[in-house]
Amino acid sequence: MNVVDEYLGDTHGNVGSGRAVGLIRAYLPIVIAAVLIALIPLRYQDSRSMMSVITVGVLFACYAVAFNIIFGSTGQLFLCSGALAGIGGYGAAILADRSGWPIPLALVTATVIAALVAGTLSWIAVRRALDTIFIGIVTIAFALSFENLVLGKGDWTGGESGLRVSTGSDSWLTGQIAPYYVFLGLLVVYLVVFRALQRSRIGWAFRALRDDGLAAELSGVDVSRYRILAGTLGGAMLGLAGGLYVFSESRASPSTFSFGNVDVSVLVMLAFGGIGSLLGPVVGAAAITWLDEFLDAVGYAQIKEMIYGAVMVVLFLGFRRGIVPMVTDLFKRKPK
Amino acid sequence: MKAVAALLDGIVLGLQYGLLGVGLTLIFGLAGVVNLAHGQIAVLGAIIVALLMGAGWAVIPAAVVGVVAAGVFLLFIDLTLMRAVYREHGEHRILLGLLLMLGISFVIDGFLNWRYPIESLTIRIGGDPVPILGVNMRTGSLLATAITIGAGAALLVFFQYTTLGRGVRSVIQDEQGARLVGINPSSVRSFVFFLSGALAGLVAVTGSMTAPQASSFGIRLTTLALIVAVVGGLGSVAGAFLAGILLGIIDRFASAYIGQFYTTVILLLCAAGMIVIRPSGLLGKRA
Fold this sequence. Notes:
Chain A is an all-alpha fold. Helices cover 73% and strands 1% of the residues of chain A.
């Protein structure tokens, strides 16, 4: 029993007879989740504010899947998800708006930068053999530095008030409903990547790493390579999601990418849904988005921060495996 | 002239940083918990003092109650939530402690932000500025420095010469060994949680003699405490003081010559750089 729960996947290992059955079993949860999520706007499509709420919900699910690859799969406590997404967001905004690059090129470049930064952090952590706690502190320091630089370099980033970006003719990202499906598409891609990683040789390496890094290394798993790979990939995913969000909002603002906003939410979501599980981040994001709206609706917006703190404490104290692994276990228990 | 002023200000500030870092480093050394709510607890103490003073209390009793209350709060955390942390071992223990304290920091921050969003503590110390090396130092800074040095000296004497203080050091060095010679690590830990909370409260009180301590300062103070403790070496009391003074001087020079915005970034880079180059910090023992 621990926070980084030993249990990684929910369906790996028990791939049924035949490749096709295995494939269906592995990817069916993603299809079901995607269909369910795709149906949500049927209820909310008339309300601009609700659409924006659920779009942000899907965005955070993307963040949480990316963080899950870094932390859930290889145990690197990256407390800079917001900053990495911010590098994607601000990077793309500055390149597109200030330097006049086409949006796709700006997005790709910013994503690559975020991936390189995350990969470098991972590389440093691996090279210096940093403990979880030290990775956490270095990445928090990086996240706070990023926040300070964004606020300080006002001539680049627009400081407190943020940076406006005009998306021009690429209006597919700005409408009321379209962005929701863009992020849903992104989420599906991220989930497929996560599952494909789990099922590949890399996934076996990840699991070995999580269970016992030393034993994995001794049995020939290239520990450092896989950690850096996970860091780089997760960084790219965070950067891309952040970049897309900036264009869908037509603005980049510091609070969107702050530690308190992104990292804390992602941690709570993952803790709720289940660290290391495929759909944990999605379930967690849905639950927290709902809770957020509920608190607003009943007039508790002012004490949200307090409630999230308390939720975090309760989750980590008594509920450490998260919902998804618990439910999966329930189904797995075969009658004798 | 500017340099001398920056140096003196840096030492004044650095002593405060040191005291802030000591509180964090003690708890890590003793319990393996990175207290990410350290700054919030300091602010909690400060706001209690401000409220009592607002209700007509004199400064000294209000300050004493605030400092003790901060200590009691952290003691309470030790006796309740942290019990679950102590049952864990190794990395999981550290991770659980860190995440729980992060949650608690949000509870405190959220509470202060909700009930006392514009409250802040200012303790005015009258009197004319005192010239030192040609720099006019405010009496508030000097008194704050005197109190901080007094507290630092008291800590030194405590750890060096008292049975309980030695007990604390023995538990930091080797919990098993301490148990063998009849020290109860659990009560030592509770005591240190109280001490750490009280030190946090004290920093907020002395800090308010030079600048208002607003209810939103928690995260900033936590960040500073973390930086100081990391640079000094997690678990090292002397290291925290040394790092505090160095970082205070760096802070004042950076903001005098480079600019306020970069100061925090530079301090953060000091911490990150220290972890990468020498994870044990200035005076910490090698793992």
